Amino acid sequence: MSYLKSEEEVELLRASNNLVSMTLGMLAAEIRPGITTLGLDRLAEAFIRDHGAIPGFKGYNGFPATLCTSVNEAVVHGIPSGYILKEGDIISVDCGVILNGYYGDTAFTFAVGEIDPKVRRLLDVTRESLEAGVRMAVSGNRIGDISHAVQTVAEAAGFTVVRELVGHGLGKKLHESPEVPNYGRRGSGPKLERGMVICIEPMINMGRRDTIQSGDGWTVKTGDGKPSAHFEYAVAVDKGKADVLSTFEYIDRVLNKT
Ligand code: MG
Ligand code: MG
């Protein structure tokens, strides 16, 4: 059974996810051709510690960094490195924190400079699929309603849904029940109740849906080498309308200024 959060806990989770959202907003201004993914990681760790939190991913199951930086055909769990971002790349930045004992977990896929219009569409559709999932995160619905909404938007655009990785509950632990797949049948799965906090995180591929595990033990890549996008919100299930605890406003403010 999934653990229901009190109103106080939802507010703590909002603060944690707001800090992750701010961190991603800070990074939005730094992502450009020439910066390394490790450079982004160092900026993020300093920012998080300066705000009284600790990185949520560093040391989690042995993960070595603050961010997951997944470039182009990397789907998720990329390890920051000396890789220098170049014009036309896309990079999923997934960030976690622990603030006052509660996790934040939010992700956004950024364009590096000008990108291929088809890749731009992959990013736009993946973000839309997340928003479609969020609209279903209301009490009385089921997890499958979220899954179905995400899948429908992604596949209608001709893209495919990664199945090996799923969203999850969020709280004092990074991964709690229930699982939140990005594909599924309407009306299936656990019932959504007010006080459930879940991460909805579509991972959408331009080509085939199958993935491979790379030799570093972490990075998940597309099997066909084509690009993949990933967006994630933490959401509190509520009556009538989901309460989104993450925000892309800090990012959009930076990106829309250019
Ligand atoms: Mg995440
Ligand atoms: Mg997550």
What is the structure about, briefly put?
With 258 residues, this protein is of the alpha+beta class. Helices cover 29% and strands 24% of the residues. The chain has one domain (7-255): Creatine Amidinohydrolase, CATH 3.90.230.
Explain the overall architecture.
The chain has 5 helices and 15 strands. The radius of gyration is 17 Å and the shape is globular. The protein has one domain: Creatine Amidinohydrolase. It is α+β, with helices and mostly antiparallel strands and 258 residues long. It starts with 6 loop residues before the first helix and ends with a helix.
Strand content: 15-25%
Query: Structural class per helix/strand content?
Result: alpha+beta
CATH superfamily: Creatinase/methionine aminopeptidase superfamily
Query: What's the total helix number?
Result: 5
What is the level 1 CATH name? Alpha Beta
Q: Count the E strands.
A: 15
CATH topology: Creatine Amidinohydrolase
User: Which cofactor or ligand species appear?
Assistant: magnesium ion
Assembly type: single chain
How many structural domains can be distinguished in the coordinates?
1
What is the arithmetic mean of pLDDT?
A: 97
Shape, per Cα inertia axes: globular
Low-confidence residue ranges: none
- How are the strands of the largest sheet arranged? 8-7-9-14-15
